Amino acid sequence: MADNKRRLAVFCSGTGSNFRALQHAILERGIPAEFELCLSNRSQCGAFEFAQEHGIETLHLSEKQFGSYEEFEEAMVRALMVRGIDLILLAGYMRKVPDAVVAAFPDRILNIHPALLPKFGGEGMYGIHVHAAVLAAGEAESGATVHVVNEEYDKGRIVMQRRVPVMPGDTPEALADRVLECEHALYPDALEKILEEQP
Ligand code: GAR
User: Fold this and answer.
1) What whole-number distance in Å separates Cα of residue 33 and Cα of residue 87?
2) 113 an active-site residue?
3) How many CB atoms lie within 10 A of CB 146?
4) CB of 121 sitting under 6 A from ligand 1
5) How far apart (Å, rounded) are the C-alpha atoms in residues 166 and 143?
6) Does the beta carbon of 14 sit less than 6 angstroms from any atom of ligand 1?
7) pLDDT in tens, 84-133
8) Domain that holds residue 35
9) Within its chain, how far is the Cα of 62 from the centroid?
10) Which of these, 37, 42, 56, 198, has the minimum number of CB atoms within 10 Å of its CB?
11) How far apart are CA 48 and CA 175, in angstroms?
């Protein structure tokens, strides 16, 4: 049966809890989208395990597999094109998306960042480093941001944000857990919004 489901690729480097939250929301809410591919820079990760359990194709793609960065970029673009991918969702992908991929998918790549951009973004700001920086700056709140990916780290158009409080005595790990829970609700909502905006 022909359907109008958007063909998604998810890029992950680790646990993939955001990927899991997205997949559950797609199935539960009937969001018109389907994961066709889970791509990772790592050969083994929690995201791959989840993808395999759900019959979603996995692809390990790393610069180290290629003679040059250009060959790596081209292979990534080709892998996405041949599968007819409409939208790429970065979910804990700890690498910069190659410029050739950004150029091939303008406005078609989303990222979730564990802070309230434009603060606490940019190179080196990922995972626990973000939460440590938020606490070091004495912020009263943090949160999560879904944004469109462009050539500059964490600088693309903001699609949706949600806030969480910083609690007295917070450790980076405690704040990370609170923000991650918020991310799991935010990312599916942002996906729905983008799908409505991009007919
Ligand atoms: C999430 O908190 C995500 O926002 C963050 O990594 C975690 C991945 O968790 N991403 C970044 O820091 C990217 N700059 P997950 O693998 O369980 O979804």
Assistant:
1) 9
2) yes
3) 26
4) no
5) 9
6) yes
7) 999 999 999 999 999 999 999 999 999 999 999 999 999 899 999 999 99
8) 1-105
9) 17
10) 198
11) 26
